[in-house]
């Protein structure tokens, strides 16, 4: 982890009078206020945290801490929570050198997450053939035919597309040359790992953890290959500091094996467009080791979300505001609910089952479940009932809210780990 003098220097640089006012405003500094004092870990932990809402409240141009000419591009979140996308300035930060530990980088690379020019720049720096194929989810088969023709031997792709990508490359006869598969990690099922190992017999398979608003993303990089029945384990990239806090009280927790709480990130690459200081990721992490054998660094795994108004599922997103819309249209009194998404790993893939815990006395719950499924939109023209018919989801269930076992404050959308 980063030492305290380095963190104090980052705070000082971000609050200087000539810097954008973002952090001075967040810390309540006015006029010639003294710079924040960061001489002890207690003072560091007392520093206000930054949330996504803080970023959304300021335009991207107000969050640029480098010359405008040094901004590489603006990244946009997916907006899956029902909100407009968050646009974030990104500096010229490569940050993919960690792949050299696992991957020789001799052939073209299939890039499904980051802009291809960043990957190309990293390959050029390492004097490798700078050939990058962009994965286009809207033209998936066309981009994979190009990847096969180019002879890609490595890829960085989203989890939800990984099985389709693997099967199509296999059909094109291009899977056996693949040496490296990196997944932009969400929850990764055992069945997916097995399927990728079967289709890519020569490849090592890894996962990384990132966020679009973090300049140095991915922040959590592979500590070891993925394996069936083992945790997905990361360690931090250089120039990233992590704190772990109680998700309800936000009190700091010790960075020791077994500690579990919300992860706060401080990201400070030298060429970053916007330094993030004590940013609430919303992800719940667990410290696995204080020092791993291979890298002598702390390792961690992601176990869930602290609070979320949406859950990603095949075909789209389950959103709290959409559940609320459907329930109140059926009956204005149906205001209180929790939606629990259960996931079961099977040989054919992950099965999804939504259980809606709803405060609906004197209501026939099976009939309510059928009505909700018919109206609950997951995509622009795709409902939960459509997913049931296609075999993507098990039938939606409604149960009394009093039977909910979550006991989580302010959580209406709860994802259960893959069983």
Automatic annotation (TrEMBL):
SUPFAM superfamilies: Acetyl-CoA synthetase-like
AMP-dependent synthetase/ligase domain: residues covered: 144-266
Pfam families: AMP-binding
InterPro entries: AMP-dep_synth/lig_dom, ANL_N_sf
Name of the protein: AMP-dependent synthetase/ligase domain-containing protein
Organism name: Candidatus Kaiserbacteria bacterium RIFCSPHIGHO2_02_FULL_55_20
């Amino acid at each position: 982890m980063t030492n305290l003098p380095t963190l104090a220097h980052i705070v000082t640089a971000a609050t200087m009078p000539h810097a954008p006012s973002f952090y001075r405003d967040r810390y309540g500094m006015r006029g010639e206020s003294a710079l924040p004092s960061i001489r002890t870990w207690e003072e560091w932990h007392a520093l206000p945290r930054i949330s996504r809402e803080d970023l959304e409240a300021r335009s991207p141009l107000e969050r640029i801490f480098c010359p405008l000419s040094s901004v590489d591009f603006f990244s946009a979140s997916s907006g899956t929570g029902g909100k407009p996308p968050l646009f974030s300035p990104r500096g010229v930060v490569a940050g993919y050198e960690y792949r050299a530990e696992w991957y020789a980088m001799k052939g073209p690379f299939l890039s499904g997450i980051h802009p291809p020019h960043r990957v190309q720049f990293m390959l050029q720096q390492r004097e490798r053939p700078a050939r990058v194929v962009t994965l286009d989810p809207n033209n998936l088969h066309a981009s994979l035919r190009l990847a096969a023709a180019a002879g890609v031997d490595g890829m960085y792709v989203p989890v939800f597309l990984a099985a389709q990508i693997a099967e199509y490359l296999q059909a094109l006869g291009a899977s056996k040359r693949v040496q490296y598969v990196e997944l932009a990690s969400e929850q990764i099922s055992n069945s997916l790992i097995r399927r990728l190992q079967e289709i890519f017999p020569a490849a090592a398979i890894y996962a990384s953890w990132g966020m679009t608003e973090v300049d140095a993303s991915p922040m959590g990089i592979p500590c070891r290959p993925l394996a069936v029945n083992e945790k997905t384990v990361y360690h931090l990239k250089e120039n990233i500091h992590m704190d772990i806090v109680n998700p309800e009280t936000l009190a700091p927790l010790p960075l020791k094996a077994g500690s579990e709480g919300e992860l706060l990130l401080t990201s400070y690459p030298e060429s970053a467009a916007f330094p993030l200081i004590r940013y609430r990721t919303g992800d719940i992490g667990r410290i696995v080791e204080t020092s791993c054998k291979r890298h002598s660094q702390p390792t961690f795994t992601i176990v869930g979300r602290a609070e979320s108004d949406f859950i990603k599922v095949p075909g789209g997103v389950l959103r709290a505001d959409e559940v609320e819309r459907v329930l109140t249209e059926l009956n204005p009194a149906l205001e209180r609910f929790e939606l629990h998404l259960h996931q079961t790993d099977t040989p054919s893939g992950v099965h999804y089952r939504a259980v809606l815990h709803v405060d609906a006395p004197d209501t026939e719950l099976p009939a309510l479940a059928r009505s909700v499924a018919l109206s609950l939109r997951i995509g622009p023209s795709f409902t939960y009932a459509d997913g049931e018919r296609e075999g993507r989801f098990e039938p939606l269930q409604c149960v009394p809210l009093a039977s909910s076992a979550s006991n989580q404050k302010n959580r209406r959308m709860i994802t259960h780990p893959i069983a």
